[in-house]
């Protein structure tokens, strides 16, 4: 596997994962490593190309992030982006200086299309700039291949040594032809054939898992979310009934969700595995009785989850492997850049490894981005509705009910949420809005229904558009859709007499309504 590898050397830039995503979109496998990675390790990986990312430092300052100078002498093509471009120029004898004004945003750029990097790119195009420092003088041997009004060297190359420097960010979609530039680099200059595909990933992972697991016993905590489901199916295809999946239904899932998970993975489903559903609803409700503080609810749900799982694990006895649905952003964000094994410290499964008697962890998705995990899911024949499922918090509806959680309130929010989801799907918005759900406020107010006065709860609707879930805007759902949802919820869900639409963005709000 991964015969052709491109390394993305991370200098702490905010777009580092995006660079890696784009390279994989060129069907070239790549991995992200910290700039501190020793040169002998880089050489041992025999990369076809190396990309140096942006970063917050100034390369001429003492102690600035740097790489080994040997990196530029390996004969392997190197592309520096933003800070990476400045660092390359600085280390090879050019001059980098601080500009009087920061260049930021969409910028017109003139490029020299005779460069292999810019083959097929329009001579006058738009790029995304974000820098203070700039290349004041190119390193010896380099020639200028792009410029903007404020940036004399927007890109430079030394064809002979296969070194390329781009001041702007081709990985960002605002750089209109950026993808073409990255494609030219990895497929053209580095000569990668572009054979990284999800179907080959599936086949190769299955045989790798078989080799590793042998006749071992494997345990997986299945949440019904995308990552754990895809990981479970991969394991099931590889080792069948050596795998046991434990699904804890804490009674805080969306309407019918527990049954759907059971239908897919249970005895009537399509997969060869041992499926254990633990119906622990009552236990969770009992533990949550009288609790209103959101952090406390989270802790109780997380703690109880571990206890329930531990009891099941004890019934199963010692296992050889524990499956974790770790994905690449988890690995990168943990600061390890794919270098050593990490156990996902995730709120959903946090503490899980400690309560299970196992020998090793298997993380079949640890090199994949979320959308690649989805492609694998489709490749494996997992139903689309599961593959494209929205993020759902581990503590589930427990944190979408303000105030005390009761079985009745769970039913109310489940019903309201199901109506909301149904109408959003009918309006064709379900794949356009990244996350949407109903929450139950703890507010009761007066209304009138028929000839009767009511004093009931208000449901809050949330719908967020976001790329990274760190910041988000509320979606502008057409008014008719909101009206329809509102009238259906009030008519169909008892004890609700008002529906509110929450338009708070994140920040200052959060995506969840807890
Ligand atoms: P907030 O509310 O912090 O949510 O803006 C950001 C994203 O994280 C999800 N979220 C969670 N996911 N376990 C999870 O797996 C949790 O405890 C949890 N809390 C929030 C939330 O749904 C949103 O996508």
Looking at this protein, list some descriptive labels.
single chain; about 525 residues; alpha/beta; Rossmann fold; GMP Synthetase, Chain A, domain 3; nine-stranded mixed beta sheet; five-stranded parallel beta sheet; 14 helices; 18 strands; globular; binds xanthosine-5'-monophosphate
Summary of the model, kept short:
The protein has helices at 16-25, 39-44, 83-91, 178-189, 198-213, 226-239, 257-265, 281-288, 294-316, 328-333, 370-379, 384-387, 407-426, 479-492; strands spanning 5-10, 29-34, 49-52, 78-81, 95-111, 124-137, 143-147, 155-158, 163-166, 218-221, 243-249, 274-279, 321-323, 360-362, 435-449, 452-465, 473-474, 496-501. It has 514 residues and is of the alpha/beta class. The chain has 3 domains: 6-189, Rossmann fold (3-Layer(aba) Sandwich); 198-387, 3-Layer(aba) Sandwich (Rossmann fold); 400-501, GMP Synthetase, Chain A, domain 3 (2-Layer Sandwich).
